[in-house]
Amino acid sequence: MSEHIQIERRGAVQVIRLDRPDKKNALTRAMYVAMTEALKSGDADPGVRCHVFLGVPGAFSAGNDLADFLAFSRGGKHGNEAFDLLEALARSEKPIVSGVDGIAVGIGTTIHLHCDLTFATPRTLFHTPFVDLGITPEAGSSLIAPLVMGRQQAFALLGLCEPFPAERAKACGLIYEVVGEDELEEAVLAAAERIAGKPPEALRIARDLMRGDREELVARIREESRLFAARLTSDEAKAAFQAFMARKKPA
Ligand code: COA
User: Fold this and answer.
1) pTM over 0.85
2) Which residue has the higher pLDDT, 100 or 242?
């Protein structure tokens, strides 16, 4: 349970809403746990036929809470909460639709690589500054991004850490559609309802075929997590986290 994750059922659609607006939906351990539980319980519930991820106006997510990363880099305990969510995404049995408005940083971008349809608004910026923070790609992105975007665009996203505006993200296959801010939720829910209306078993088989080998994906997520955890205590990463925490806002 987390006060920052709202779960709602709309017919056969389960909506998982990230709701920590004062921190731009930066993800805490409790939020990962709540999202994982929702995915797993929705997968186990025959009444749920589609999952939806939404954020708040202006922010899907600013990524992992950097205070947690900083605490770990100083010797704190690193939990498995994020890994558990990523594994649940990789093993998800029902289609996932996501809607993004505004900020989508780190896992706020890579989570969509596990979604079947992602809608984003024109002001959305997808950004994975892992390397700039002294850390490394996660969420299976090193495997999935080159497949969906091609290796060079994936390198621009994950190696150069270039921000991808919504139109560029659509052009390179990272997302499905760009829609206006006022239409986002409606478009996402309409797509989820279309999915929920399909013959579920045929759709499950089709989706399984398209998603390929889940064991390979889970193995890559695990390998990335190992490297990522090691990088969290690097001098490069410590300096980047401290710089963010100590930054002064313009007056
Ligand atoms: N972890 C913890 N807190 C975060 C956060 C994060 N990843 N991202 C934003 N916040 C907090 C800020 O500290 C600030 O809190 P405060 O009001 O108590 O000072 C609040 O959210 C609003 O953020 P702010 O930076 O003022 O908003 P902005 O619109 O100017 O910038 C971002 C938004 C996302 C561009 C900027 O916050 C940012 O770069 N965040 C870090 C993103 C990141 O590196 N994530 C990790 C990826 S692995």
Assistant:
1) yes
2) 100
pLDDT surpassing 80 at residue 151? yes
Backbone phi, psi, residue 164, to 5° = -110, 110
Each residue of 51-72: pLDDT tens digit? Answer: 999 999 999 999 999 999 888 8
pLDDT over threshold 80, residue 248:
no
Cβ–Cβ < 8 Å for 59, 100:
no
Is pLDDT at 250 greater than 80 in this prediction? no
pLDDT at residue number 247: 85
Q: Find out whether the beta carbon of 158 lies less than 6 Å from any atom of ligand 1.
A: no
Task: Tell me the CA–centroid distance for residue 149 and ligand 1, in Å.
Answer: 27
Pick from 20, 23, 24 the residue to mutate for probing ligand 1's pocket: most ligand atoms within 8 Å of its CB.
24
Which domains does the chain carry? 5-182 (3.90.226.10)
Atom 4 of ligand 1, nearest CA residue: 23
Q: Is there an atom of ligand 1 within 6 Å of 65 CB?
A: yes
